Amino acid sequence: MKSIKRIALSIMGVAMLLVLTGCVQVDKVTGLPTGPVWDFLGAPMGEAIKYFATDKGLGFGVAIIIVTIIVRLIILPLGIYQSWKATLHSEKMNALKHVLEPHQTRLKEAETQEEKLEAQQALFAAQKEHGISMFGGVGCFPLLIQMPFFSAIYFAAQHTEGVSEASFLGIALGSPSWILIAFAGILYYVQSLLSLHGVEDETQREQLKKMIYMSPMMIVMFSIFSPASVTLYWVVGGFMMILQQFIVNYIIRPKLRKKVREELAKNPPKASKTSATRKDVTPESVAVISTSNKKKNKKRNSGKQHSR
């Protein structure tokens, strides 16, 4: 089950970056972005960048920062909702630890494939009974809605006319910048560390610790092959994600923890019954022979007692 969760989280993490190039198509001849997402979202974002950069005289670096913040604030409620669902799942796991722990222990101690399968089914049934998802409570729908916005601003920061020739604080926006790459990696690493806050369940913490380097490494890898304008977008996005994580850690999580504990206090769950004994896997033929031998021995002993 742990491997399934890790795979699911890994796929979601990789998808968040790969989809940036999937929502918008690039014309092979002109090299410019095309498609509905670009037409309805990317192009207007590009115009907004040019407006702040040229019309307001703020420069393309500041313009990318402003537009990125605006876009992030628009989709922030979706990110908060997604984090709310994941946090609710985490708090339920913490509160129902005494219910799920026997199943988890049974799964760890299972020796045969049959025992493992039975333990997994019992664990899944207990999780389903208490409204706990095996995928961590993270819904796909809010993420899918956010993806076009991420994709659009990604291409707008890269392909808006004038960006590639501009500079920001002495950094050429048309070429990769190791300074911005380092900032982006650090910010996403900090955000990953903050995601561990308040997670009491050891199993969950171990899973999150194994994923803690994935997001920073992917951002760094993509930034190495991207112009500084795109990396600047990721730097601003990192700040916004840290802000979102603070909201989750210090506003949402305490409220959800209180709510879950109060609900369980009113309707306390019953501890799940698990089979403590090993299942008898003795072949039927052997069991029959053993039973007949016991009967024969009993008759002999009975005869000896009568002869006495």
Automatic annotation (TrEMBL):
<comment type="function">
    <text>Required for the insertion and/or proper folding and/or complex formation of integral membrane proteins into the membrane. Involved in integration of membrane proteins that insert both dependently and independently of the Sec translocase complex, as well as at least some lipoproteins.</text>
</comment>
<feature type="transmembrane region" description="Helical">
    <location>
        <begin position="58"/>
        <end position="81"/>
    </location>
</feature>
<feature type="domain" description="Membrane insertase YidC/Oxa/ALB C-terminal">
    <location>
        <begin position="60"/>
        <end position="249"/>
    </location>
</feature>
<dbReference type="InterPro" id="IPR023060">
    <property type="entry name" value="YidC/YidC1/YidC2_Firmicutes"/>
</dbReference>
<keyword id="KW-0472">Membrane</keyword>
<dbReference type="InterPro" id="IPR001708">
    <property type="entry name" value="YidC/ALB3/OXA1/COX18"/>
</dbReference>
<dbReference type="GO" id="GO:0051205">
    <property type="term" value="P:protein insertion into membrane"/>
</dbReference>
<dbReference type="GO" id="GO:0032977">
    <property type="term" value="F:membrane insertase activity"/>
</dbReference>
<protein>
    <recommendedName>
        <fullName>Membrane protein insertase YidC</fullName>
    </recommendedName>
</protein>
<dbReference type="GO" id="GO:0005886">
    <property type="term" value="C:plasma membrane"/>
</dbReference>
<keyword id="KW-1133">Transmembrane helix</keyword>
<keyword id="KW-0449">Lipoprotein</keyword>
<feature type="transmembrane region" description="Helical">
    <location>
        <begin position="168"/>
        <end position="190"/>
    </location>
</feature>
<keyword id="KW-0143">Chaperone</keyword>
<dbReference type="Pfam" id="PF02096">
    <property type="entry name" value="60KD_IMP"/>
</dbReference>
<keyword id="KW-0653">Protein transport</keyword>
<feature type="region of interest" description="Disordered">
    <location>
        <begin position="262"/>
        <end position="308"/>
    </location>
</feature>
<feature type="transmembrane region" description="Helical">
    <location>
        <begin position="134"/>
        <end position="156"/>
    </location>
</feature>
<keyword id="KW-0812">Transmembrane</keyword>
<keyword id="KW-0564">Palmitate</keyword>
<keyword id="KW-0813">Transport</keyword>
<dbReference type="GO" id="GO:0015031">
    <property type="term" value="P:protein transport"/>
</dbReference>
<keyword id="KW-1003">Cell membrane</keyword>
<feature type="transmembrane region" description="Helical">
    <location>
        <begin position="234"/>
        <end position="252"/>
    </location>
</feature>
<comment type="similarity">
    <text>Belongs to the OXA1/ALB3/YidC family. Type 2 subfamily.</text>
</comment>
<keyword id="KW-0175">Coiled coil</keyword>
<feature type="coiled-coil region">
    <location>
        <begin position="100"/>
        <end position="127"/>
    </location>
</feature>
<dbReference type="InterPro" id="IPR047196">
    <property type="entry name" value="YidC_ALB_C"/>
</dbReference>
<feature type="transmembrane region" description="Helical">
    <location>
        <begin position="211"/>
        <end position="228"/>
    </location>
</feature>
<dbReference type="InterPro" id="IPR028055">
    <property type="entry name" value="YidC/Oxa/ALB_C"/>
</dbReference>
<feature type="compositionally biased region" description="Basic residues">
    <location>
        <begin position="293"/>
        <end position="308"/>
    </location>
</feature>
<keyword id="KW-0732">Signal</keyword>
